Amino acid sequence: MTGWKILLKKTIFDPFKFxxxxxxxxxxxxxxxxxxxxxxxxxxxxxxGTLASSCSSKVAANEKVKLLSPDGExxxxxxxxxxxxxxxxxxxxxxxxxxxxxxxxxxxxDLSRCKDARKCISACQKWHYRPEDREWLTVKLMRDxxxxxxxxxxxxxxxxxNPPCVKVCPVDATYKRQxxxxxxxxxxxxxxxxxMAACPYSTRVFNWNEPEMPFDIQHAVxxxxxxxxxxxxxxxxxxxxxxxxxxxxxxxxxxxCPNGVFYFGDENEDTVSNGDETLGFKQLITDRAxxxxxxxxxxxxxxxxxxxxxxxxxxxxxYENLPENIKARYKxxxxxxxx
Amino acid sequence: MELNKYQQEVFDKQRxxxxxxxxxxxxxxIFFMAWILLGGYALYLQIAKGHGITGMRDNVVxxxxxxxxxxxxxxxxxxxxxxxxxxxxxxxxxxxIIRIAEMITVIATIxxxxxxxxxxxxxxxxxxxxxxPRLQSPITWDVLAISTYFAGSVIFLYLALIKDFAIYRDAKxxxxxxxxxxxxxxxxxxxGTPSQNRHIRISTNLMAIMIVPLAIIVHSVLSWIFGMTLxxxxxxxxxxxxxxxxxxxxxxxxxxMAMWVYRKMYGxxxxxxxxxxxxxxxxxxxxGAGYGYFTFSEYLTGWFASEKWESDVLEKLFNPAxxxxxxxxxNVAGILLPILVVALPKTRTPNLIALVSxxxxxxxxxxxxxxxxxxxxxxxxxxxxTRIEYVKYTATWVExxxxxxGIATFFLFFTLMSKFVTVIPISEFANKETKxxxxxxxxxxxxxx
Lengths: 339, 449
Fold this sequence. Notes:
The complex is a heterodimer. By secondary structure, chain A is of the alpha+beta class. Chain A has two domains: 3-84, no CATH class; 105-306, Alpha-Beta Plaits (2-Layer Sandwich), CATH 3.30.70.20. In chain A, 33% of the residues lie in helices and 15% in strands. In chain A, the strands form five sheets. A five-stranded mixed sheet of chain A has the order 12-11-10-3-13. Chain A has a two-stranded antiparallel sheet with strand order 1-2. In chain A, a hairpin with a 5-residue loop joins strand 6 (174-176) and strand 7 (182-184). Residues 10-60 of chain A have low confidence and may be disordered. Chain B has a single domain (5-382, 389-438), classed as Formate dehydrogenase/DMSO reductase fold (Up-down Bundle), CATH 1.20.1630.10.
């Protein structure tokens, strides 16, 4: 965005934000310190592996950390409190709209490795504090033709480069960033659901009722990058976890997958990683005949699929271990395969 | 205001209607209010408990509400297009029916957009439409188009009312003081001077010319909410004209029904004559044929090419176990029946035309439902790994209560309006010719018609 456009946006559309941004920018040192502190805190959390609470002892007690308050002011709080919360609104909403400079996030999904273990789904729900019945990530049982065998097809948001959802939003609540991500500002969303109707991949979900979340998450600073807290009457979806990407972490679905199905990375750097191995993105797509799902729709997804050739598991392996209520979701498709 | 013989006759006929509210009207008002209250309670529950109380879910994100929205904006075309076009063409027989038609327009345009609001998850953020507007979104186009159209319709109705307000003001009607005062204000000092008449004439002509393209824009934009998406059954190039035609068609049907009701209720046979029903029947028949042509063209091309996603939707529409019977009803009652009834001289009577209009209007509502729900139930990706209760849409009582609440509001507004102004415009009977051209059918004409 050019300078005058930003100015226009700040002054006309975001008068309040303009005020606070100005405050922050004049106090540049403070701002830098703040970002650094927060980044460090997050990295420390990450180094401990899973939950932040497990490593709270590593941070000296009563140490003060600078943070951005909901009112846009920099406040100091006790670091032990900071550790309690995994998610940090580490960037302003304006930065969350612009994206991470120089990045082009991309995901590769290896269909030959998926057995519908559903670890990705639960990891995603845990990270975003979503209830068990809220899937941002679903696994379909696909079958390309009558004679072709079925295969498991994990599907998250494709973060299209020509996103049909962004085109139709009347209030600019969902937007495309320079790093390729399509995010939603759930404090701006009016809940018209037009984006849900427009998305050809049925990716988006709606908060039909008041979402149940832990108390502190419910009152966390809302940010499109963290996607917490969920808000009733608004749309949400997979966000590729940009708050983690900012500190060099893989999304939870990628980390949680026991079979290394998902590769996440940066197209500009030409690297993707599933946590175990890091590969060249273009090489991987070339070697394994990677494709984008429904290319003919012209949406230009940022998710690539590797065809289910030389599969590691028979499709039934995943199906047998599923709980009954999940099994019921695939009943029609499974019956079709037995014929 | 001096009334001539003909005007006096029309006025005397309708005077008791606006002077006495009547027990019957009270009963109807209370009846409609009860439905509206039930709708209000449903709305309260929906706002307090969230949209989870409706039948809409992640796959079928829109349901009854959007069908009602298209339906009401559709019937609003009665005044805009029928009255507008007939005005431009200077069709004399339009004069007794213009007020009914324009009242339908204004009332339906008030109720229609309310259904969009019922669909919105965050009513507290509606102002975002104005502080963060995005001109690329068809919803923004809709907001602009419908608000302009509503303003235009109100002006169009009002321009035709000014002279009548002056008549009510000067007639010393036996009505409460506030009502007399209101007539006086609304008549804005009209005295029938040549310059005043000229201004009203020019303004009405201009509004008639503007309201027609405005109406076409409104339903085109509305259809593009669907047409612009990549969904089978929606992503169709003919959706704009298809919706516009269907809207005028259903508007004509509602106009015929309203005429029938008023004629019966207030005994206006000598003004709302058989000829009006027959002429509007002809218009309805032509529109029905056009609508049928669009329908045939839309589904034939989809079925013949049988592309996978399109076939999924068509399978749902043709399968009797799914929406087959509804689809059949929508096409028989919505296309064949009106054409047949008007085409055959034996069935071409006001009662039958009104009855068939009722069926046609219901069929067109069903059609709107069939445009929305089956498509949303047929996403491009197979609907797996989705909760079982999310697969199929069934409207809950909340949605039905608000639907009937809207219909009751329509009737209530109509009842109240007909007690405030005369449904047959008095001032339009300005000269001998108007009366002479008043379509009073003689025996020969009935036979030839």
